[in-house]
Amino acid sequence: MTTAAPTIRTGLNLPLYLHGARLSFRRQFAYPLATFWGLVTNLFFGALRVAVLLALFGARPQMAGYTQADAVTYTGLTQALLSAFSLFGWYDLMRTIHRGEVATELLRPHSFLGFWMAQDAGRAAAQFLLRGVSILALYALIWGLEWPASPALVAISLLLAWACGFAFRFWVNCAAFWSPDAVGIGRFAWGIMGLSCGFLMPLAFFPAWFQRLLALTPFPGMMNTVIEVWLGVRVGMDAVQAIAVQAAWTVALLALARLTLARGLRRLEVAGG
C-alpha cells in the first residue's frame, strides 16, 4: 500500500515537545554501566589527543595563536561535546524510515521535525551532563582547564552549535527516503563534519585557504565557534558576529531539512507499496 502524500504539521505544541525531551533525557540514564565505560573510553582517547597536540608544540610557547593550555582546554571541550553532538554518527531517523515506523509518527498531532528536535535536545542535555560535565571536571583535575570569560556567550554558542548540528544530521538522515541503505551516506557526512567542525584538530591549525573555505560552510558553527568563544579567541563584537553566523546557518539548515523532509514524504512507501 502506498501512502498518500503526508502533510507536515507545523503547529507549536510546547507541552508535547517538553514531554518528548524529558523522556529522551531520562532514557539516557537507563544504562549506567554503558555510560561509565563510555566515559572511561572518552577520557583515554582524550589523553592520547592531549599528548599528540602537546607534541606538536614541542618547545614553542604558541602555535596559530593557541598556547599549550589552550590546546588542553580545546581537547577537553571537544571530548566533552563528542557524545552530546553525536559527532560519530546518528542514524535514528534512518532506522525509523527504513522500518516503516515513520508512518505511525506522521499520524501524531505534532511537527515531525519539531518533535525529533525536542527528543534530540533531551538526549544531548543528558549526554552533556553524564559525560560532558564529567570530562570537563576530570580535565580540570588532571591537566587544568581555562574557563571562559563570557559564560553567557559560551552558553548561547553551545546551544546554537547543537541546533546547527542537529539540523545537518536530520537533513543527512533524510537520505533514507531515497536510499535503501543510507548509512554509507551518513558515514561520509560524519567524516566531513568531524574534520570541518574543528573536532579532529583546531581549525586555526589548517592552512589559511582551507580556513577561508570552511568559513563559507556551516561546519565551524557546529563546534569551532564554541571553542573560540570559550578560549577568548573571539571576544566582544567578534564573538557576537560569530554567534550571529551560527544562528543564520541554523535557520538555513532547519529550512533545508524541512524542505528535504517534505520532498521525501512525497515518495514515501510503507508496507511494500
Protein described:
With 273 residues, the chain is mainly α. The protein has one domain. Helix content is 66%, strand content 1%. The chain contains 11 helices and 2 strands. A two-stranded antiparallel sheet has the order 1-2. Helix 2 (32-57) runs antiparallel to helix 3 (68-81). It is globular and about 60 Å long. The N and C termini lie close together (4 Å). 40% of the residues are buried.
How would you briefly describe this protein structure?
The protein is mainly alpha-helical and 273 residues long. Helix content is 66%, strand content 1%.
Summarize the topology:
Elements: H1 14-27, H2 32-57, E1 62-63, E2 66-67, H3 68-81, H4 92-98, H5 101-106, H6 112-142, H7 151-173, H8 183-196, H9 208-214, H10 224-231, H11 236-266
Antiparallel strand pairs: 1-2
Helix pairs in contact: 1-6, 2-3, 2-6, 3-6, 6-7, 7-10, 7-11
Mean pLDDT: 88
Which word captures the global form? globular
Which residues sit in consecutive blocks of at least 5 with pLDDT less than 50? Answer: 1-5
Order of helices and strands: HHEEHHHHHHHHH
Q: What structural class is derived from the secondary structure elements?
A: mainly alpha
Gyration radius, in Å: 20 Å
Helix content: 55-70%
Strand order of the largest sheet: 1-2
Distance between the termini: 4 Å
Can you count the beta strands? Answer: 2
Number of domains: 1
Query: How many DSSP H or I helices?
Result: 11
Major pleated sheet = 2 strands, antiparallel
Percent strand equals under 5%
